[in-house]
User: What shape does this take?
Amino acid sequence: MKKLIGSLSVVMLFAVAFVVGCNKSSPSTPQGGNSGPTSTVTPTITPTNVGGFTSTMTPTVTPTKTATSTVTVTKTITSTPTVTRTITSTLTSTPTNLGGFTSTPTQTSTPAAYTTPQPSGITTINMGTAASYAVLAYSQVTNSGNSTLCGSIGLDPGTQIDGGIVVGCGGVTDVNNSASLAAEGALGAAYNTAMTLASGATLPAGVDLGGQTLYPGVYTCGGNVNLSSADLVLDAPSSSATVFVFQITGGNNLIIGPGRQIILAGNATAANIFWAVSGYCSLDTTSQFFGTIMAYTSVTLNTGATLNGRALAETGNVTLLGNTITDPTP
Assistant: This one.
């Protein structure tokens, strides 16, 4: 047994010596496919490289900062409402401009009912046989200077018509005859029709229509109506509603200042403008007027005044001072 153990010890020592000897004599680089030791070293290096990459990843914090810069972009977007405010202020200025334009016509300072009366529903006022008369009076027709009429002249029941009046455009002179009597009757009926129409707008007593723009409809005034500070525009935007009727009640008067005029706009025509005056009507020098004047008392045209319409006096006289009157009958 001792010999066997001894023999085994010798064998083990020999094996150890052989291994040690092999390690000393083996080359440092593995040969062939025996790359075990190399692969063992590589994993050891790989963590080091990974560590390097990990350290390189430290700038990955920068994307976090980049995300922070997104907040800056958000601030830029926040500034967009500022731009919106700027646009809003621009729009606000637009009404100011519109206000400037609106303030140009004087009528904007008046009530809406004043400038835009309710539609009257009428297409005209039937003048009957009085329609062909440029001048028609009850008591007398006086004249100074040269006056020209495009249309007829009538007088009833009076008998005196002054000289110097030229009647043209196929007009005739009727004095205290059946034609003039019928014309006076037609004038009375037309006056009553105009005065009894439902009013669409009320004008203040003593109103000055200068600088106004008025639209078709029925206007009523319980005081004098003046045109003195500026001209009057009568505008009929639609061809289906073009009639203007002015009711001057209470024995009040229509007074047109020197050089003042009516300006027609749109579809407005002299044939569709009617002035029913419970007192008298006076057109001052060089004024230019439009429409049929139906005065309960008298009508006076001062020097140089022109009328595209009719001068009709129901109970008084018509006075001319070198004027031109044109009957607007179509």
About this structure: Residues 1-113 have pLDDT under 50 and may be disordered. The CA atoms of residues 162 and 250 lie 31 Å apart. Residues 116-326 form one domain. The longest strand covers residues 288-295.
